[in-house]
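Response to reviewer comment R2.3. The reviewers asked that we include at least one raw input/output pair. We reproduce the pair for DNA polymerase III subunit delta' here without editing.
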Amino acid sequence: MLYQWQLAEWQALISQGERLPHALLLTGEPGIGKLAFGRHLAQSLLCESTAADKPCGVCDACRWYLAGNHPDFRELTPAVEEEGDDDAKPKKKASAWITVDQVRELNDFVHLSAHRAGRRVTLIQPAEALNLAAANALLKTLEEPPPGAMFILVSHQWRRLLPTIRSRCRRLALTIPPREQALAWLAQQGISDAEANLAEAGGAPLAAQERSDAGVTAARRSFLGELADPRKLDPLGLAERLDKQKVEVARVTDWLSRWLHDLARLGLAQSVRYYPDEAGRLASLATTLDPVRLMRYHDTVLEAKKLSSHPLNARLVYEQLLFGYQQAVRPANKG
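Raw output as returned:
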């Protein structure tokens, strides 16, 4: 399924017909529908209808694809790992990585003859989850793809891919939809406070939908309210509340990094990107800041965000970040 804002990009791509590359890298901001676009393309490549511009949805190939069992399609995602000791039932946990064993199995599939005498299509998402060994194993196939093999790589952070992987793909940068179109779509989904959620999501409508959960919204507003008055901020108390509420480290660092971005943006361009509904409180802070100190702290938050998928003592992370925040936003020395 395509989203309305993707129709022009879809038509431009599909008009290439047989000139489509054997490997396509879909890039763009998280939450704009890259995965939906990639899956729609995969179905279109496998569709056995004569329709040129979209999958028919009714042929055998489309029905198999939609049921998740097309023999000529593979979707590669981070591995599921088992953890636990011998005396306990292992728990399954999603890994952060696509492994070399997964890619080796994929290479076996790619070199088989197609069951339907057509294409064999592979979708890899997110492509930046390929670990180094997996990326190198995939590279060999991208360099010398067998006839009929097609690869669709979806990436939120495409610059993290090996340069050799990027060079074997044609990149298609999908764009954020126009604001009014995104707001109209959010209204159709019944999202309340769509403007604030869309702003926080940087204009990405699917991300805005995910952020619209009432509990998440309330937690975010409470957290930003604490940041707005750093002199009264109690890092230990707030860290304890966040930990008890089971707010993920990734979410807290996301809120914090966007708040810092807006503080810096106010100082440089007198505008707010992510939290326009907090513009007044942001402005009162921004006038007294040391921009160098603020950006150094922003780097610290981004590092914590990168590590958020690893096992962490969340409360300790929150305490360190919040004490650091108090130092970062203290008034600059004017002397």
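The chain has a mean pLDDT of 91. Residues 211 and 217 are 7 Å apart (CA to CA). Further pairs are available on request from the corresponding author.
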